[in-house]
TrEMBL record:
This is DUF1559 domain-containing protein. Residues 59-88 have a biased composition (Low complexity). Residues 394-479 form the DUF1559 domain. It comes from the Bacteria. Residues 23-89 are annotated as: Disordered. It holds the Pfam family SBP_bac_10.
């Protein structure tokens, strides 16, 4: 493990939650994600609550707190694990909690629809694969994301009070984070992954210190609590019945549940408003009148439920609730108007689903509570199939953008190389001579750019005094950096032009920027040619320049092709470009600079 970040549990779960949800029978609970009833994957007895029943929001009876509802503590049966192995993680929510967030990675990742969405995302951006990120997560944290049943994060009043100090760059207090692993997954795996973690005994149990000064405490074989060392003992002993705990318990079994006590948040915002009575941004100006009328906010999001989103806000009285309802209804109406204007841009196969979501969004008021619900549309399980064209288009756009970024990185590497050696690398050596005055036996300019592309370890593997196809160097062909392409045979179609009187030519030293007398912004340094021109990336040489037909060397380029100019910029050129103009762009000192 490289570095441990407990909030990575939270961030990963939130990101994955946005991928989608699975099939749900038509008789799903009408109140969306606000109950555990009917869930196919109820939490086990060591997590949020017993299967099939709502977690209790009532204060624990005096004779029950130590036996069942009290969190593990030093005073319970001599060990933290023996104290309450079946207790709810909600018992770690203190009475003065300002916000509680619960996310459930294992539930989301086990959903077939989510798996399909992940596959689509990986296809759209193969260099940033979700599965690889999850593998990195497992390497960093010690367990796989799907082995995390749920994560509970608590922000208390003390942390909120320190918000101005945090914003000013001061100390950052740690939230309370409870990690509940799936049955059979050992919490020791996470403890063992903490870099340079120091074992400590505290609160009647064991834990390890973390690099940020916090403590990871082993509550049981499958549960950990993270907190500051000073706060840990009170966290473990807490068994409160505060309003934030009561609110979040109603949607605790959802994919994501959030509860916020807005009263202390309003105080913080009002203080900020006094310092800046004209807050920046139109949104803040529009939202503040609503926020001042709210007391609490709770949210449940579950893409398996009848209502995939349910938001409830409480107000001080019925009149305030009606006022908030009116303001929110105005926002909702604006959103629906914007949808009507933009719906033509939505793929045809998704328009019916989008209309259901927009038309189904409903605001309601009950006494002092204002609620917003978003229904799960029909055929939601077909969402990945509907999104395939959009993902394919996004994949092409991402591929083009990545190619452009790769070319720019190569251009930057060329210039950094020049800063060090006062010339560009030669096409067939590093441009340097040995004691006998003989240049390197032959490695591509691409190899010699490796240290400037953050591939110094790979560069050091090459035997520079051997040819590219020596037994040793040939073994490194398979390690071609992605910046040159993704050909499985280690071939690339990123080339320089070679020929007499050109900046690059075989057997000659690398060019200097001062040799580009036609101007660095008027001369091609490298080109992304057709795939049929692909060559082993370590092989010296380039595209043979033919002044009469400079396009001949480019192969199948399509309608446009990308070039890297000597100043490091990139341009898309048309295959219909005048041959003479293209020839002038390739020649660095023919006296015919091209004015773009």
């Amino acid at each position: 493990m490289r570095t441990l970040s407990l909030t990575s549990f939270l961030m990963l779960a939130i990101c994955l939650h946005g991928c989608g949800g699975g099939d749900k029978p038509a008789d799903s609970p009408a109140d969306g994600g606000a109950t555990t009833e009917g869930l196919d994957d109820p939490m086990d007895s060591s997590s949020l609550g017993a299967p099939g029943e709502m977690p209790s929001t009532d204060p624990p009876a005096a004779n029950e707190t130590a036996a069942a509802n009290e969190a593990p503590s030093a005073s319970s049966s001599g060990s933290a694990e023996a104290a309450s192995p079946d207790g709810s993680t909600l018992n770690y929510v203190p009475e003065d909690a300002v916000a509680v967030l619960i996310v459930r990675p294992s539930k989301v990742l086990s959903n077939p629809l989510v798996k399909e969405m992940i596959t689509l995302m990986d296809q759209a951006n193969p260099r940033e694969k979700v599965e690889e990120k999850m593998a990195d997560f497992a390497d960093e944290v010690g367990v796989k994301p799907e082995q995390v049943d749920h994560v509970l994060v608590v922000v208390d009043k003390n942390m909120l009070d320190m918000a101005p100090m945090i914003a000013a760059g001061g100390a950052r207090p740690s939230p309370v984070v409870v990690v509940q692993l799936a049955p059979g997954v050992s919490s020791q795996l996470i403890l063992d992954s903490v870099p340079q973690g120091e074992s400590i005994e505290i609160a009647g149990g064991t834990g390890v210190t973390t690099p940020d000064g916090g403590v990871l405490f082993k509550v049981s074989d499958s549960r950990l609590v993270y907190s500051s060392k000073e706060n840990l003992d009170s966290v473990l002993k807490n068994a409160s019945s505060g309003k934030v705990k009561a609110m979040v318990s109603k949607s605790a079994a959802s994919d994501l549940a959030l509860a916020v006590d807005l009263e202390p948040v309003k105080v913080l915002l009002q203080d900020a408003m006094k310092q800046n009575p004209n807050p920046p941004g139109m949104v803040m100006t529009m939202v503040m009148p609503i926020v001042t009328q709210l007391q609490t906010l709770s949210l449940g999001a579950d893409l398996e439920a009848a209502n995939i989103l349910e938001v409830n806000v409480s107000t001080p009285n019925v009149d305030a609730a009606q006022g908030v309802h009116g303001m929110l209804n105005g926002f909702l109406g604006m959103g629906k108007q914007q949808y009507e204007q933009a719906k033509g841009e939505i793929p045809e196969e998704m328009q019916a689903m989008a209309k259901q979501l927009v038309d189904g969004a409903e605001l309601s008021t009950s006494d002092t509570i204002v609620s917003l619900t978003l229904p799960r549309p029909e055929n939601f399980e077909k969402l990945p199939e509907m999104l395939k064209p959009a993902f394919a288009e996004a994949a092409e756009a991402a591929k083009r953008a990545q190619k452009r970024n790769d070319i720019k990185q190569i251009g930057l590497a060329f210039h950094n190389y020049h800063d060090v050696y006062q010339h560009f690398p030669a096409v067939d050596s590093n441009g340097e001579k040995d004691e006998a005055g003989v240049r390197g036996k032959g490695l591509s300019w691409r190899v010699h750019l490796l240290p400037f592309l953050e591939y110094a370890p790979l560069y050091e593997k090459f035997n520079l005094d051997e040819a590219w196809d020596s037994e040793h160097n040939k073994a490194l062909i398979a390690e071609m950096p992605a910046v040159f392409g993704d050909n499985p045979e280690g071939k690339t179609s990123i080339h320089v032009f070679v020929g007499e009187n050109l900046a690059f030519n075989e057997g000659k030293p690398g060019a200097r920027i001062r040799d580009y007398t036609d101007g660095t912004s008027n001369t091609i340094l490298a080109v992304k040619a057709g795939d049929d021109t692909a060559e082993i990336w370590t092989k010296p040489g380039g595209l043979k320049f033919n002044a009469e037909d400079p396009f001949a060397a480019l192969g199948n380029i399509g309608e446009v092709f990308m070039v890297l100019l000597c100043d490091g910029s990139t341009r898309d050129l048309s295959k219909d470009l005048d041959k003479t103009t293209f020839s002038n762009l390739i020649q660095q000192n023919d006296g015919n600079p091209v004015d773009f």
